[in-house]
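Quick one: structure for this chain?
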Amino acid sequence: VQLVESGGGSVQAGGSLTLSCIASGDIFSTLAMNWFRRFPGKQREFVAAFGSSGSTLYADAVNGRFTVSKDNAKNTLYLQMNNLQPEDTAVYYCSSQGQWGQGTLVTVAS
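Got it. Here's what it folds into:
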């Protein structure tokens, strides 16, 4: 599977962004997919997951502010991010089956 993220950008604290991850292939509907993020100089950390059964899971730091969803008709995974804070500034990646996208940068100004 190949993954391409988009939707990153710069926002003020309290703002919102929606990230998208388009996946290639014919088995998208069966894939469990994840969002991770990498802070400058640090390893990637888990953000959210959308399971193959439709279940969702969130990191404590984003629970209640971020929402992960999946549109099988569009082969697209989304991450709706609300009430963004400067500590959310990072490169965001989607992943599935050991594959990673190139990442999209989110910058939140205070």
